[in-house]
Specification:
22 helices, three-stranded antiparallel β-sheet, four-stranded antiparallel β-sheet, alpha+beta
Length: about 475
């Protein structure tokens, strides 16, 4: 019998957003997922990505040697938790963790065996990586150095996104990273000009580092087949990295050719560190070891406003904690005070404000019509600007109700409306009606079809949509015998 009840209402209705990788996994075939479940590290990683109800169901079924009656399991569920229970079973069925059966509940034998091995240990598959032998000649990278390396690589990508095409010369990531940014529609180039951030790219900056990383990795997974890479090998390597120990070196010898080729890409993203490209050992960074956990993928900093700072060991840290607290003060006169010395945050602000002053830990700027229209021209919407200011508002600002001055919000939206005064639409102009009665009769028919975009009663003409032309034309021909 299951060892845990589902009658706990705190478990029945969790506020849990599904992980972005789960829909991608659900789109894969059963054969692909079964191959993936042959690796215990993959089973453990997917288990981590699931919601609390799915995890509880799996643990209830994991140690049973035979299938459990579906009626027995559903009897443990309160009526108000039925929808959440059914949704959890749907997720498990979509991942082929459990069969789609209304009679019996059981785990996929391959998944059950892999997860059991991941929990209890044992086996000799190397699924969790093979630690490299200690090198007496060279000292391995410590955690502080790995954090600094991951931060430098990740910030290079983000800083290039916000600075390219803005008259600056940011450090350029590798061609592989640039291609991935374009494929993800985070950046594009118009008429051969330099790459510029898109509306999707600005929305990307509003996400947490964890969501940003998976956004890029999902696009990387979609590109795997185009590059003739084995998707199972790609996924299993990412899951393997997520279960490795931070600060330990691992051998590249047991890796497949696909996984060895991935090392170059993952170095560019800051997920793995190698002393040199030909090295037969590598170390995962915090970006990799937190892929399937709730821990922050980048180290936090004690610096004000989310800046980078170096401690006595030379470690460089990013302000994930400070960024959550907020660093922006917006006044009703459109003046912005940003308490930060982080170049990346300053570069993001420069996308939609006019800089006035820069001090060691403070940036002062103005929201102007020209700066906002420039941002709008680059594909950034008014709502995205307001969302960014809201997300990163200083704690002192959060005492206000509303959080941002209403006059400033309205003005940003009005500046956007200035660009959207005219809307174009393809269609047909109907005119030269023989009489007012004919015009009104045809117009009434077109309005019934909801295809009228514009009308002028005095001139006896109206403009209809492209899709509705065939019906309107046929109606006119039937009434008059000709157009």
């Amino acid at each position: 019998m299951p060892v845990q009840s589902l009658k706990n209402t705190d478990v029945i209705v969790p506020q849990h957003a599904p992980h972005p990788l789960l829909p991608f996994l659900q789109s894969q075939s059963q054969t692909t997922l079964t191959r993936l479940y042959q690796r215990p590290s993959s089973c453990l990683s997917i288990f981590r990505l699931l919601g609390p109800i799915e995890r509880q169901l799996i643990m209830n079924l994991l140690w049973l040697e035979s299938a459990l009656s579906a009626a027995t399991m559903s009897a443990w569920v309160l009526p108000e938790g039925k929808n959440a229970y059914d949704s959890a079973l749907t997720v498990m069925t979509g991942l082929h963790i459990a069969p789609n059966s209304a009679v019996k509940l059981a785990l996929n034998p391959t998944f059950k065996s892999g997860l059991r091995q991941a929990i209890t240990g044992g086996g000799n598959t190397g699924s969790f990586g093979v630690p490299a032998d200690k090198d007496g000649k060279r000292q391995s990278a410590n955690i502080e150095n790995l954090d600094a390396y991951a931060l430098e690589r990740w910030e290079t990508i983000l800083h290039y996104m916000v600075s390219s095409g803005q008259g600056q010369n940011p450090t350029k990531p590798s061609q592989g990273v640039l291609y991935l940014l374009q494929r993800s529609d985070l950046m594009n180039n118009v008429h051969g000009a330099a790459l510029q951030i898109t509306s999707s790219g600005f929305q990307f900056l509003l996400h947490s580092p964890h969501d940003q990383l998976w956004n890029l990795l999902l696009q990387y997974l979609h590109m795997a087949e185009e590059r003739q890479m084995d998707l199972v090998e790609v996924l299993s390597f990412l899951f393997m990295l997520s279960t490795m120990d931070l600060g330990r070196e691992y051998s590249t010898e047991p890796l497949s050719e696909t996984q060895k080729a991935m090392l170059e890409d993952l170095r560019d993203y800051g997920l793995v560190w190698q002393r040199k490209t030909s090295s037969k050992r590598f170390s995962p960074t915090r970006l990799a070891t937190t892929l399937t956990s709730s821990s922050p993928p980048l180290p936090s900093s004690h610096s004000t406003g989310g800046s980078r700072m170096a401690d006595g060991t030379g470690a460089v840290a990013l302000s994930s904690g400070a960024a959550q607290q907020g660093f922006i003060v917006l006044e009703t006169n459109y003046r912005i005070y940003a308490y930060t010395d982080n170049p990346l945050q300053t570069a993001v602000l420069n996308l939609f404000i006019t800089m006035k002053y820069r001090f060691p830990n403070l940036v002062v700027g103005m929201l102007t019509r020209e700066s906002v229209r420039k941002a709008l021209g680059n594909g950034i919407s008014a709502d995205q600007i307001i969302s960014y200011l809201t997300t990163h508002a200083h704690p002192q600002m959060r005492k206000n109700n509303p959080l941002l001055p209403v006059t400033v919000q309205d003005q940003i939206r009005l500046w956007e409306l200035e660009r959207n005064r005219l809307k174009s639409a393809e269609g047909y102009l109907y005119k030269d009606f023989a009489s007012q009665a004919d015009y009104e009769y045809v117009l009434a028919y077109a309005k019934q079809l909801d295809v009228v975009l514009w009308e002028n009663m005095a001139k006896r003409c109206f403009f209809g949509t492209l899709d509705g032309h065939a019906n309107v034309r046929g109606f006119i021909e039937r009434r008059t015998g000709s157009v």
